[in-house]
Design goal:
By secondary structure, the protein is mainly alpha-helical. Helix content is 74%, strand content 2%. Helix 17 (342-378) runs antiparallel to helix 18.
Amino acid sequence: MSGHSKYLLRDWRPEDVGFWQQSGRKIATRNLWISIPCLLLAFAVWLVWSVVVAKLPAVGFDYSTDQLFWLAALPGLSGATLRVFYSFMIPIFGGRRWTALSTASLLLPALGVGFAVQNPDTPYAIFVVLALLCGLGGGNFASSMANIAYFYPKSSKGNALALNAGLGNLGVSVMQFSVPLVITAGVFGALGGKPQTLSDGAGIWLQNAGFIWVPFLLAGAVAAWFGMNDIDGTRASLREQSVILQRRHNWIMCVLYTGTFGSFIGYSAGFPLLIKTQFPDTDALSLAFLGPLVGALSRASTGWISDRFGGGRITFWTFAGMIVAVAGVLLFLPGQSGGGNFLGFFICFMLLFVLTGVGNASTFQMVPTIVRQEVPRLMPDLDSGAALAQSERESASIIAFTSAIAAYGAFFIPKAYGTSISLTGGPKAALWAFCLFYAFCLLTTWWFYSRRNAPVPA
């Protein structure tokens, strides 16, 4: 980060009330409201395969159910892996530069998907590569959250992170709602290519699922480059940041955030295809967007609850609710002889999405609270100012790193559905496994953070 850049904030003290009220809040707000649409676009590109795969058979691609679930799952695998690296990028490159460049990088999968789906002879391997490239959007979350964490004081950090993540998560719902609409018309005229013909003779422009994001990605990259800031004093090497890998609570929070965000993004990726396979008479694409929508909105609107009542307590009750919700989904799924109740299934899944949003906000609220207790204990030689600065750096890195690990849910949940269906004829085995995992997360939260005399109350 150049010391001469007009975009570099050399004096940044969000915990100083006077500084915050005079100028800090305005600058932080501007960076937040540019970050949010960039993150929304990242989520849209990341999960675009959740809709595209449901339409591939209709336009002439002869893939098995397991192959389709693989395509829905692969962006989660690459996105989660990229997050591990992206989680360390902000202190190295700066938030403004990295947000702009990472947003622009999404043009590659957006254009690639648009061109590939126009030819039924496109090899499956090409779709695998494009699905993996969509993971670039998943990586952006880690760097985005780490960046916003630097801008806000502890008193409002939970709410700011909830807004960034929650409204960013809306990209999944925006994509699942808008793509089924834009593929029904030649939005880009001759530039967008010819339509594909369905079995009933109707035409769709499946390529628009990728092309529709291109102008918005260009606008987002430009806005980030000219409208955001880098913060002086946050710069750190990869080696300096890697201290979090030695922190026990970093790994514990990875488990808990996998239970919340991993569930949100995994259910989002697999929901359209799950509806299509279990309730084939239901128009999956017209309803699937509602799950990510309520999950994203609940995350964006419930950060204040954890700020007020404590993230550990809210996380505990969230996992309890998720166990009940999954039990409801299992109850209403069709069995080997058919049956099932779609309305009950759908309501329970909506509750599950809402709870993942609440838990996403509460777990991230816990991180700064935990780190501020642990750094003085683990590094007693630091004075109060140095300890606070170290806590801020570690909190930002842990938030980003836990998001990386949790993002593997976008791979494992759709793949678990596919494997369960292949082996048992239905997805119930996968859902029982998720239920047991939530029970483990509930006990872990209680033991370390929410019980009386917990080692690190959060």
